[in-house]
Amino acid sequence: MTSTSACRSDCGYHATSPMVLGQSLRREALSILAEMGIAVKYGHSEVGYIPAGRRDERVWEQHEIELGLAPLPQAADAAVLTQWVLRNLAEQHGLVCSFEPVLHEGHAGSGLHVHLSPVVDGQPLGGRTAEGELHPPATWLIAGLVQLGGALMAFGNREASSFVRLRQAKEAPNAVNWGDHDRKALVRLPILVTTPAGAVVGAPTIEFRLPDGSAHPHLLLAGIAQAMLYGRATEGIAELLRRTASSSMSEQPGHAAAVPGDFQEVADALDAHRSVLEQGGVFPVHVLDHVVSTLRA
Fold first, then answer.
1. How confident is the model at residue 118, as a pLDDT?
2. Using CA of residue 146, residue 215, residue 38, residue 198, what is the dihedral sign?
3. How far is it, in rounded angstroms, from Cα 142 to Cα 269?
4. What is the reported pLDDT for 3?
5. Which phi and psi (to 5°) does residue 69 adopt?
6. 108-121 pLDDT, tens per residue?
7. What pLDDT sits at residue 28?
8. N or C: which end of the chain has fewer CB within 10 A?
């Protein structure tokens, strides 16, 4: 039985053994993470399969692990520890584990999507109320991310291939927008999974889809927190959200602002918003000075 590599790649989403490589390693990783006290939501195979070729004799299989919700400092620790566990397991099994944003031309790319859920009175709100309206904290978060997303690329998109992913890869954002269920949006409100009886399974979230596997989790999540505070203070927030909604973009193609396309543009965005990140002493001046100089080098 044979299949084309294109079909093999497209059919890899949620595939299972023997049709996908590395399933046993992924499951081992999930068990180890659970033993370490790291909450895991699920793990599954993805569409980024790369067959062996003349430039690279290795076969690459793409997997996704989504961690459970946690306060931002613990969530950053969990992301770093997950990468550490996966790299060690891969070495033990004689394999290679890569978080490179794009491995080969046309590769689906490896995002580090951040699921966020503002918590009020102990309850994660996600994006919308039962009536379909955005929760006020959700508007703050979305408004902050669409305004500071480019600056946050300094911490979330740190490799040259980061820009390749945004230009060519599947379901990767390249414009400043947000929307429900939109996999190409900068910020997405994912579909809610429910039981046949209609009960919601898991906490609702708001997904920041711009970062990739090169991200520095601690700096990135600290920046996201500052972005939400900035969003809360934004005047004209309703108009900003209307203007940057995916539905508005579809009505006016080409009107969406593009995300930064190289390190110089990321540095410009960071310079423009660094005062937001410096508020409260969250990002020391010397740290941002170093990041900007590195981006411009």
1. 96
2. positive
3. 17
4. 40
5. -65, 145
6. 889 999 999 999 99
7. 97
8. N
What is the C-alpha to C-alpha distance for residues 296 and 159, in angstroms, rounded to an integer? Answer: 13
Token pair in block for residue 207: 């997904």
The pLDDT of residue 5 is 46
Buried b (16+ CB within 10 A) or exposed e, 182-208: bebbbbbbbeeeeeeeeeeebbbbbbb
CATH class of 1-98: alpha beta
E strand or H helix at 199: none
**CA–CA dist 172, 177 (Å, integer):** 12
Across-strand partners of 114?
208
Report the C-alpha gap between 30 and 28 in whole angstroms: 5
Per-position DSSP letters for 49-104, written without gaps between them:
-B---SS--S-B--EEEEEPP--HHHHHHHHHHHHHHHHHHHHHTT------S-SS
CA distances from 50 to 22, 44, 95, 102, 108 (A): 13, 17, 15, 11, 9
What's the pLDDT tens digit per position in 177-190?
999 988 889 999 99
In 157-245, alpha helices (H):
160-168, 217-232, 237-244
- DSSP secondary structure letter of residue 245: B
Report whether pLDDT(37) > 80: yes
Domain boundaries, the chain: 1-98, 111-297
- Partners of 208 in the beta sheet? 114, 187
Superfamily of domain 111-297: Glutamine synthetase/guanido kinase, catalytic domain (3.30.590.10)
Instruction: Provide, for the chain, the percentages of residues in helix, strand and coil under a 3-state DSSP scheme, each rounded to the nearest 5.
Output: 45, 15, 45
- Cβ contacts of residue 210 below 8 Å, gap of 6+? 149, 152, 153, 156, 157, 166, 173, 186, 259
Strands 40-45 and 119-120: unpaired
